[in-house]
Amino acid sequence: MDKLDWAHQPEPLDAAQRKAYWRRRLVAERQRLPDRLARNEALQRVMRVWMVGRADAIVGAYWPIKGEFDPLPALYRWQEAANVEDARAARQQRRIALPVIDKVAGTLRFHVWYPGCPMEEDAYGIPKPKDTEVVQPTLLFVPCVGYGPGGVRLGYGGGFYDRTLAQLRPRPVTVGLAYASAFVPWLQPEPHDVPLDAILTDQGVAWPVGDD
Ligand SMILES: Nc1nc2c(c(=O)[nH]1)N(C=O)[C@@H](CNc1ccc(C(=O)N[C@@H](CCC(=O)O)C(=O)O)cc1)CN2
Ligand SMILES: Nc1ncnc2c1ncn2[C@@H]1O[C@H](COP(=O)(O)OP(=O)(O)OP(=O)(O)O)[C@@H](O)[C@H]1O
């Protein structure tokens, strides 16, 4: 299931049609991943290791949809760990935030979330925190439908993350999360695409690639 059949793309397709085709296909593949539990555990571990030693207090994430990896269990542990590991970190209070769509601007704002937080559905039917504080994450976990070389991300095509990152100052560190099976070798950045600073998968750090 890790290997998609790249040879069998209907041709000819322009770049936008090709992306739309692979979006559908990657989401369908993801929704029927046979070894999801093992992959979830692996990716949670990769996240935890990646975050060790970082000083972020506000971390942005997402409420998983369409078979996306769920980042919230690992983040909840990150939040709880501060209470036992480091009294100073606990006072600084680590916080988790989820995206809320600004329909007019086509961008995302981040609202504080905590387990049991009152939620409501956004325009896409995705649960979002109801009336909690707006915050500025310094670290942002970004869901990927697919990912390519160089930190390029394929999303659902709304352009929300690209538009948000084009505007957010200071810019948060961006970390894409994906199952390793979502690698798209031919994916090229478009002019508006803001590359991710890192990409984590159930197989480890996919970007940046070490050795130099
Ligand atoms: N979990 C999660 N939350 C998120 C995002 C995300 O990628 N994942 N977003 C990241 O931006 C924003 C929501 N963006 C989304 C954009 C499109 C679709 C979607 O279902 N699109 C339809 C086509 C809709 C259309 O174009 O008319 C589809 O893919 O079938 C969903 C979410 C904010 N919240
Ligand atoms: N900075 C920007 N300013 C204006 N429009 C943008 C910007 N970034 C992206 N867009 C528009 O958004 C549309 C979707 O972009 P793209 O296909 O890269 O979405 P995506 O990254 O896959 O989606 P999402 O971020 O919602 O998951 C593009 O047609 C593009 O014109």
Automatic annotation (TrEMBL):
Cofactor(s), names only, from the UniProt record: Mg(2+)
Alphabetical UniProt keywords: ATP-binding, Ligase, Magnesium, Metal-binding, Nucleotide-binding
GO biological process: folic acid-containing compound biosynthetic process; tetrahydrofolate interconversion
Pfam families documented for this protein: 5-FTHF_cyc-lig
Residues the record lists as binding ATP: 19-23, 153-161
EC main group: ligase
EC number of the protein: 6.3.3.2
Family that this chain belongs to: Belongs to the 5-formyltetrahydrofolate cyclo-ligase family.
Name by which UniProt lists this protein: 5-formyltetrahydrofolate cyclo-ligase
